[in-house]
Amino acid sequence: MLKDKVSVLLQEALVEDGSLFLVDFSVGGDNRIHVVLDGDAGVTLQDCMKISRAIEHNLDRDEEDFSLEVTSAGAATPMLLPRQYNKNIGRKLAVRTETDSFEGNLTSITGTGIVLEWKAREPKPIGKGKVTVQKKQEISFSEIKEAKVILKF
């Protein structure tokens, strides 16, 4: 019952701000509500506070006691939704599929997947030595088991 109420309040709050979207939502047995958000332009502290207030101010603590945590998807958190890739175009990703792993720059998003590009050193077709070649791989969303942004410090 609490989960249904929170779900409705959450959807109403997200409709008001079209740039935010839900990544994960759960209600534990002890009425611990956990909401993970992401946004097309990132998520600010004010965004988290706005969603938190939209939920908390519309629930009655006299009816049910609960705890509420609203967070943003972390920088090193794997991407779960196709919409999360949009804001990461141009960034380097580590992508794991069932059969392979790739590291490359996310250059574009298609209707069904992503396109990664990277440079690799390969043996020359004729003669000794190696040559740098540009590689490109299109990976469908259904093939992706895990995709993370590679952070540089």
Give a description of the structure:
The strands form two sheets. The protein has a five-stranded antiparallel β-sheet with strand order 7-6-5-4-8, with no helix packed on it. A three-stranded mixed β-sheet has the order 1-2-3, covered by helices on one side. It is α+β, with helices and mostly antiparallel strands and 153 residues long. The termini are far apart. Helix 1 packs across helix 2. The mean pLDDT is 91. The chain is elongated, with a radius of gyration of 21 Å. It is built from two helices and eight strands; from the N terminus they run H-E-E-H-E-E-E-E-E-E.
Notable features of this structure?
single chain, three-stranded mixed β-sheet, 8 strands, alpha+beta
Helix-strand makeup class:
alpha+beta
Contiguous helical run count: 2
Shape: elongated
Radius of gyration over all CA atoms, rounded: 21 Å
For the largest sheet, list the strands in their spatial order: 7-6-5-4-8
Nearest-integer average pLDDT: 91
Oligomeric state as shown: single chain
Largest sheet: 5 strands, antiparallel
Estimate what percentage of residues fall within beta strands: 35-45%
Order of helices and strands: HEEHEEEEEE
Contiguous low-pLDDT stretches (5 residues minimum) are none
| Helical proportion, percent range | 10-25%
Write the layout of secondary structure elements.
Blueprint: H1 2-16, E1 20-27, E2 32-39, H2 45-56, E3 67-72, E4 92-97, E5 101-109, E6 113-123, E7 130-140, E8 144-149
Parallel strand pairs: 2-3
Antiparallel strand pairs: 1-2, 4-5, 4-8, 5-6, 6-7
Helix pairs in contact: 1-2
